[in-house]
Specification:
Shape of chain A: globular
Largest sheet of chain A: 7 strands, mixed
Enzyme class (chain B): ligase
Helix content of chain A: 25-40%
Number of domains of chain A: 2
Keywords (chain B): ATP-binding, Ligase, Magnesium, Metal-binding, Nucleotide-binding, Tricarboxylic acid cycle
Catalytic activity (chain B): GTP + succinate + CoA = succinyl-CoA + GDP + phosphate; succinate + ATP + CoA = succinyl-CoA + ADP + phosphate
CATH superfamily of the largest domain in chain A: Succinyl-CoA synthetase domains
Number of helices of chain A: 10
Strand content of chain B: 25-35%
Helix content of chain B: 25-40%
Number of helices of chain B: 12
Distance between the termini of chain A: 24 Å
CATH topology of the largest domain in chain A: Rossmann fold
Protein name (chain B): Succinate--CoA ligase [ADP-forming] subunit beta
CATH superfamily of the largest domain in chain B: Succinyl-CoA synthetase domains
CATH topology of the largest domain in chain B: Rossmann fold
Radius of gyration of chain B: 26 Å
Distance between the termini of chain B: 41 Å
CATH class of the largest domain in chain A: Alpha Beta
Number of strands of chain B: 18
EC number (chain B): 6.2.1.5
Strand content of chain A: 15-25%
Oligomer: heterodimer
CATH architecture of the largest domain in chain A: 3-Layer(aba) Sandwich
Structural class of chain A: alpha/beta
Number of strands of chain A: 14
């Protein structure tokens, strides 16, 4: 089992005919993903040959969904057009929309997050590596060959730290690893993933990776205390990072926390989550939580 | 990016929010000319992107052109919490009858917009929040519906602001939306003795990601390493230590800084070279770090995800060739892991560069870099 993405997921790629979209579509196919469609406005009727499979291109998400039954969209379009592309996926009621694009204006993210919440779409990202259920399917750019299928769930703000932990625990393997993205406003939070992992019979334990800024980790800690019975280990990056200036006074007030790594670590430890000092120690904590060596 | 007060007020003016008459000056002579033109007592305000200007002596009244010149002389060049005031805003002195607080911002915890309004302005908002949190009205704003005249009236009413403030609140929201701002804050928003609502100060943070749909020209004047790195498209932050750090991915680099600190040394910088890690990018990164006189050792920490480690290793070898002599003095500890790590390590050992040593784990590499920086 897995969360959000399984071997039955039918994936369409928005921006598949661009260089990045094409490159990563080939990688997703190699990871076993069932890619059923590409979408590029104005290029409906074309197709792209990936060797083992030729993927049809549609002019709109609605067409692609109607013709192929796609239920996941991965977005590789440039930042300028990302807002529009995501809103199109929401309008077409695609259940899961994974936004890889980096550099999306925050106002656009706030808008499509609100539209998604009012509709039927879960958004992951923007500015994220996507998610992978090893051995089943990959939606995004997480490398498939650094790890294996297993029973650990992982949720992270950071791409490379996700890869690092997946690699360190490659012998135990993962049910699903989700990179939720490091932007100030993202569609899916740590808490959404914790809830799904707690409910997933294929997941035995959870690794949560956080970093400075905002108070998502503090909120996750409160959620874990009240709702999660599976073992959770965590890692927080940024103890030595200088204080962020993104939001100034008002932002700090609203979060009710200064967003430091120390505050996050303390909040997690206060609810019994073990927090590793390094990625390697975090992997060790996970091994002992699972009784493995 | 945070804007200076004078830039924020220019935006306010363009959106119809009343601000005191004034202009920005880079020299005392300019300040004198502006004061003469305004023909009224003025205030000389240091333009720095930090709070606490008043306490630091960066806001000074001047009764006329001569006083404006001498006060500007004192303020220009002033160091306020590490920020140098390169310009001053010369503004008509305005006497507030009442002071309020108003802000719209992106609330990242909720992934939505938030309004914050209070009838008690003028002091630091954190101070007010700690002392009297009920004095601040917070209202989530629907990003699709936005703030219309009704919402603005409701906000003003709830917070205890006079009716005529509602129009200004509505315009302030338009600044947030139309300028792709993450924060617009007016503290204080004032009511003058003749019942005029006016923004006496302004803080605006615009979203760099949205620059493509604006004609902003908010150039930063700086010759720092950070500015040089930015010009080369590198994400670099200068820190205080001696171990230079390069890595791929913001999270991994942050983590590397922590592991270096855990090994007993302070990191000299944050530098994320991103996914590609081409030879040119690696050379640019190494060049920036080696230009920092504080750096005693360098730690290159790369996890090959999409990028294979052999490509990264070739990048390092080519980078060191490009750098030539400059790459020889400082020891460089390299840790490669992930995709094709074996091949990558072999490429580096075959190159036999005198400055390079390899360690296979992140923790071990950090320990070696820390030891080398300490001179052991």
């Amino acid at each position: 089992m897995a969360i959000f993405l399984t071997k039955d997921s039918r994936v369409l790629v928005q921006g598949m005919t661009g260089a990045e979209g094409r490159r990563h579509t080939a990688r997703m196919l190699a990871a076993g993903t069932d890619i059923v469609a590409g979408v590029t406005p104005g290029k409906g009727g074309a197709s792209v040959d990936f060797g083992e499979r030729t993927v049809p291109v549609f002019g709109s998400v609605a067409d692609a969904v109607e013709q192929t039954g796609a239920d996941v969209s991965v977005v590789f379009v440039p930042p300028k057009f990302t807002g529009g592309a995501v809103e199109e996926a929401i309008a077409a009621k695609v259940p899961l929309c994974v936004v890889i694009t980096e550099g999306v204006p925050v106002h656009d993210a706030v808008r499509f997050r609100a539209l998604a919440a009012a509709g039927d779409t879960r958004i992951i990202g923007p500015n994220c590596p996507g998610l992978i259920s090893p051995g089943q399917s990959s939606a995004g750019i997480i490398p498939a060959d650094i790890t294996s299928a297993g029973r650990i769930g992982l949720v992270s703000k950071s791409g490379t730290l996700t890869y690092q932990l997946m690699y360190e625990l490659r012998d135990l393997g993962f049910s699903t690893a989700v990179g939720i993205g490091g932007d100030p406003v993202v569609g899916t939070t740590h808490i959404d993933c914790l809830r799904a992992f707690q409910e997933d019979p294929g997941t035995d334990a959870i690794v949560m990776i956080g970093e400075i800024g905002g108070d998502a980790e503090e909120r996750a800690a409160a959620y874990i205390a009240a709702n999660v019975t599976k073992p959770v280990v965590a890692y927080v990056a940024g103890f030595t990072a200088p204080e962020g200036k993104t939001m100034g006074h008002a932002g700090a007030i609203v979060s009710g926390s200064s967003g430091t790594a120390q505050a996050k670590k303390e909040a997690l430890e206060a609810v019994g989550v073990r927090v590793g000092k390094t990625p390697t120690e975090t992997a060790r904590l996970m091994r002992s939580a699972l009784g493995a060596r | 990016m945070d804007l200076y007060e004078y830039q924020a007020k220019e935006l306010f003016g363009r959106h119809g929010i009343p601000v005191p008459a004034g202009k920005v000056a880079a020299t005392p002579a300019e300040a004198r000319a502006i004061a003469a033109e305004l023909d009224t007592p003025v205030v000389i305000k240091a333009q720095v992107k930090t709070g606490g200007r008043g306490k630091a002596g960066g806001i000074r009244p001047a009764s006329g052109p001569a006083a404006a010149e001498s006060e500007a002389e004192r303020v220009i060049g002033m160091d306020i919490k590490g920020h140098i005031a390169r310009r001053v805003l010369v503004e008509a002195a305005t006497v507030p009858f009442e002071e309020y607080y108003a802000a719209f911002l992106v609330d990242r915890a909720e992934g939505a917009f938030l309004a914050m309004v209070s009838a008690q302005g003028g002091m630091e908002i954190e101070e007010l929040a700690a002392r009297d949190p009920d004095a601040i009205v917070k209202l989530p704003i629907d990003p699709v519906a936005g703030v219309d005249a009704d919402t603005a009236r409701q906000l003003a009413g709830k917070a205890g602001l006079p009716e005529q403030a509602a129009g200004v609140l509505e315009k302030l929201w338009r600044v947030l939306v139309e300028e792709d701002a993450l924060l617009v804050e007016v503290n204080p928003l004032i009511c003058t003795t003749d019942q005029q609502i006016m923004a006496l100060d302004g803080k605006v943070t615009v979203d760099d990601n949205a620059a493509f749909r604006h004609s902003w020209e908010y150039a930063e004047e700086s010759v720092s390493l950070e500015a040089q790195a930015k010009a080369k498209g590198l994400n670099y932050v200068k820190l205080d230590g001696k171990v230079g750090v390069i890595g791929n991915g913001a999270g991994l680099v942050m983590s590397t800084l922590d592991v270096v600190a855990g090994a007993g040394a302070a990191p000299a910088n944050f530098l994320d070279i991103g996914g590609g890690a081409s030879a040119q990018v690696m050379a640019d990164g190494l060049e920036i770090i080696l230009a920092d006189p504080d750096v005693r050792s360098v730690l290159v920490n790369v996890f090959g995800g999409i990028t294979a480690c052999d490509a990264v290793a070739n990048g390092i070898v080519t980078a060191l060739q490009l750098l030539g002599e400059r790459g020889h003095g400082t020891p460089i500890v390299v840790r490669l892991d992930g995709n094709n790590a074996e091949v990558g390590r072999r490429i580096l050992s075959d190159a036999r560069h005198p400055a390079v040593r390899q360690v296979s784990t992140m923790d071990g590499a950090a320990e070696m870099a820390a030891r080398l920086a300490a001179g052991a």
